[in-house]
Structure formats: structure tokens, C-alpha cells
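W.,

You were right to be curious about this one. When I first looked at the sequence I had no strong expectations either way, so I just let the prediction run and decided to look at it fresh. Below is the sequence, 169 residues in total, followed by the output.
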Amino acid sequence: MSNGTLLRELRESDAERVFEQATDPLTVEFTPVPVPYTRSDALDYITAARVAAEAGTEHVFAIDHGGRFGGSCSLRVIGPHRAEVGYGLHPDARGRGLATAALNEILRFGWEDLDLRQVTWRAKVGNTASLVIAQRVGFRVRDELGTLRQRGEEVPAWRATLKRSWHIC
């Protein structure tokens, strides 16, 4: 990470809090985490993040919350100069501005270190907290709805894009 102020590499010691986040009812409602989610799944997630970063296909960072895992933020490469962002918070880290700060930090990383020109955001319709955060940093919601795959089903999703020149923070 460029600054390292808020985002850091995931560590095996984060596994218990990753598990807690992934089994939180809001996370289950709005993300594609497997149900049931096990502690082994949390360790697999951390390992998979490391492998994806080495391959250059996805960059997943832990959001630091007082020295503990507070959530994650990622950029998944979807084409030349393009990526899709994702983020989520542990229940005790919500409502503190961490997601907005993490999103701004990972976008700077994408623009500067990955030479991205456009980032896409998607969230299940109804996830207004994620929508507000995306709009706060400059994502522009498209008129049409998209979909997300969530546990084997296609669910309606909001979609938005952000170009490097639009990023306001």
C-alpha cells in the first residue's frame, strides 16, 4: 500500500475477526460470503488474498481499526486499466468513517500504483450504507441496474463508475 496509514496486508491473526464479520447478519445479507461460513473459510480467504496479490489479479487489504482487523477493501482487476472495488466492515468498526477513508486510500493506490483509469462499484440493491460511501468519493451511479451473483443466485445490484479524473478526495 502506498501510505500504509489505514490499509495493510491481511494476516493470519485477522482470521477470527474476518470470521466475525463474515457471519454478521448485514454482511450475510449484502455480500456473497458462503453460508455457513467457518473459521477455516476465514483462513482460506486470507491465503487466497495473498495468492491473488502475487498474481496481480486482486489486491485485498485489511482496514486497520485500532491495531485490529476492522474490515477489508479490495481492487479486483477486470481489464486493462480497470478494476472493481469492494469493501466491508466488521460490525464494531461501522459508523466511524473508516470505509470512506479506506476507499479513498485504495483508490489512490489504484490510480498511482496500478495505473487504473476506471473503477467499478456494485452493491446489492438496498445496501444504502455502501451506496452513500461510494457516492461520497465520487462514484456516479448508472441509471440501469446490474446484478451480482450471491450464493448461486443473481440479485439486483446498483452499479457505479469512477474515473481517475472524477475522484474528489
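Here's what jumped out at me. The longest helix spans residues 39-55. And, maybe more interesting for your project: The two ends are 17 Å apart (CA to CA).

Coffee later to discuss?

I.
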